[in-house]
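As the work plan foresaw, the team has encoded backbone shapes as discrete tokens. One protein thus recorded appears below exactly as we store it.

:::
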Amino acid sequence: MAVSLVNLVRVPEIRNKLLFTLGFLALYRIGFKIPLPGVSYQAFRAAADQAGSGLFGLMNIMTGAQLQQATLFSLGVMPYISASIIFSLLSKVVPSLEKLSKEGASGQRKINQYTRLATIPICLVQSLFVVIGVLGSKVGTTPMLSSSVASYYGLYVVLVMVALTAGTMFIMWIGEQITENGVGNGISIIIMSGIVAELWPTMVRLWSGGGQGDATQSFQTLLLFLLTWSVMVVAVVFMTKAHRRIPIRQAKQTRGRQVYGGQAHFLPIKVNSAGVMPIIFGSALLMIPMMIGKMTGWRALEEAFGQGRGFWYVFSFSGLIFFFSFFWTSMMFQPGEMANNLKEHGSFIPGIRPGKPTADFLEKTMERITLIGAAFLATIAVFPTFMQNAGTFSGLEGRLVYFMSGTSILIVVGVALDLVEKFNAMLIMRNYEGFMKETPTDGTTVAPKGKAGAGAGSGEGSGGWGRRGKS
């Protein structure tokens, strides 16, 4: 592992990609230091602390944003994620978009363009909600906006909406630059960096006894949190990499005296094929009754569906996760199309007839796998609630509880695994020639020691085949 890390820095191409990614991530973090004008930050942060375990905490975890700071990048990539989810669903429902998604890279570029255009109105709507619904409220008797804004409130609303929209579009540009010239998916890395950025300061405050209780109790709570989080990460990694491998065979074809085909393959189906989407959808819908309770003053509704309040929260959240797991999988997984593709390529599942029986078999298999994946998602989503209600994490801050929730762990672990695979692929591509041959300092090529015959044979079989044929 240490040698591989050194190789990442040694190789100029990988080093430049790493530096490019880190530089643009630093530029992304600078945007959170540019404050919005006309905001009373003491009142705003007091309101953010009161709602830290509710709307602000949920939005920050899902998008890597920092709504509690009222800065230029406060919205994060939340509008872009919403537009991406919308077009992912529409591409399976609308025939024109479905046809466009099957046209390869050109069709995907067109859908990405539609997604960017749809991000703008979503930004405007969400920024209007932030300005009027959040900044326009009061903390007790103290307004969040300064008195100087009252004289030109309409112009101020338009100004903040344009500023927040421009900030989100700039974050989108940063993500695209990281994807093209850096390492990994830029938007995913931005979300992960936003989640991890708030983890270290919160842990430091808890380590120093800044939470509830004395320093010894805070230290014990922090160690218990790290142990629990490590166990959950291992479980998430295991379930993320888990696949159900369905055996597939190719039909044999006889041409003259040669027999082609007959190879055995596997069709891998992910156990957690829905990913983090069911948790995001379920969390977003659970915010509706809580917001209705706050607006109408119905305390019973707010307490019943508030984060970690009890039975109705756990029951509703688990039910929504199961529902959206099956819904998302049914939208993205098309067993009939997969069965037709297998039939067209001359492949079949042993013991299953091609066509509709194969589609029925794939659908039943996917339903059983989705049930296991949904149960896993529901478990890791409500596990912090059980721990908190039991008093295990009584002195833990809301941000750490959210970081241990299913949404944040799935995002961080998923992005980390993707980065590891990208780095591994880069090293394999770079070291492939090094395994086959050595390059001395004088520039000549020498076959590896002890593998001269193998190296010569592979060379003749690829580049030297024509010369061998002539001789």
Q: What stands out?
A: The longest helix spans residues 356-389. DSSP finds 20 helices and seven strands in the chain. The two ends are 46 Å apart (CA to CA). The first strand starts at residue 138 and ends at 139.
